[in-house]
Amino acid sequence: MTDPTITEVLAEGDDQAWITLSDGLTRLVSFQLLMSRPTHLALRLRRLLRCPRLSPDGSHILWPGGTLLDVQSVQQAPNGPLPLELLALVPAAQRYRPLAALLRACDPPLADYLDARPSQVVAARLGLKASEMDSILAGHRPTIPELVVPRLSDLALLLSHLVPGGMVNGLLRRPWPYAQHYAPQNPLLDTALDCLRAGRTDLVEAPLVRLLLPSPNLAGAK
Fold it and tell me: Domain coordinates of the chain in residue numbers?
């Protein structure tokens, strides 16, 4: 059996990534432990950390300046050669959708993985103009729209579950204290819509998850 290779790496938030291997699984990992090592201190620079690329043979993740991570550390996380925290392990087809499990855990379930809406429907649910949707997709690059739209579809479904449909767009345009608190280094993230445009969907999702997890109907999502 040949050793697995890394086929894709997608930055997530300030210190995480979705890493897909040729074994068909995607790991959502945190680099917090790795960033404390003298050899990987450069990863504390957020702009650098969010710019990973793959080595030609798929054996390593590379960052500008020469910092790297081997495939064995990813596959064996959290017990590999380099320290990584394993946050989730999902089939590759279900990557980049952190809300999917939460939606399925609702009673009754709000959606399953294949229940993603087309881009135009997602934009309408969020009350976005076509130009705004385009700017959000651009802000998530290099992640492809085929992955971003399903994630936004999950977000739209969750928001429509929490607030009346006509209020979703207004909520996105109001000040978003969570981003202002957890990303103070970026003063441009004033509203939830600003977060989406900057490719920081996680800053919109996180407080919603915290709001929902205590619910008895969602106990299975913890």
Answer: 6-94, 100-221
* Of 174, 169, 188, 189, the residue nearest 129 (C-alpha): 169
CA–CA separation, 44 vs 107, rounded Å?
40
Sheet of 53-54, strand order: 53-54, 60-62, 68-70
Give the pair of three-digit tokens for residue 79. Answer: 């017990």
Question: Quick one: pLDDT band at residue 2, thresholds 50, 70, 90?
Answer: confident
pLDDT at 217: 43
5 exposure class (CB count in 10 Å sphere: 0-12, 13-18, 19+): middle
Which residues contact residue 56 at a Cβ distance below 8 angstroms, ignoring those fewer than 6 apart?
none
Strands 25-30 and 53-54 turn out to be: unpaired
Residues 6+ apart with CB under 8 A from 190: 175, 176, 179, 180
